[in-house]
Amino acid sequence: MNLRAPAILLASRHQGETGAIARLLTAEHGLITAYVAGGRGRQMRAVMVPGNRVAVELTTRSANQLPFARLELEHSRAALMTEPLPAAAIQWVCGLSATALPERQAYPDLYEALDALLGAIAVAPSARGWVSGLIAYETMLLRELGYGGGALPDAPDWPAQHALLGILERQLSHYLLAGHKGDVMGARRLLTERLARMG
To answer: Are residues 15 and 110 in the same domain?
Structure first.
């Protein structure tokens, strides 16, 4: 696989002394895991932030080898990671997507919805401006992966939206994250606690 495409960085973890393993979501190629040389270095620190939009250039030397990725920052959301509620939301949606989506299957609508949600989290003055987008994204994710039931009820106000988030949390935990609950559901619980403080 050799490609160049826009992507959303969903997660990264250290690999070796200076490298990182990145999980990236692209519109046309789906979720891709790749090795980023120097991913732990000072120059790449601001790039390797969940939620960032990047241009990724992938090269593969053999079919059974992890692709190598070069990343260029297109849109940074790193500044949001210093704000507790936006940071919790970004960690949650990126962690959920990185864990639930299968590798190399394209979900262009999910890619666009996630990018729009991350954009809303960045510009909305409070969570009331993006929580409906979070509900829509989680619902779409369940549906795209084959677990979508009927339409969810309207949630015109904050208490109804909060109740709907609780329903979705149970569905996501049961259908998509069974066996992966630890860190990912911990991120959801942190987000839920912070949203509950808004009353």
So the answer is: no
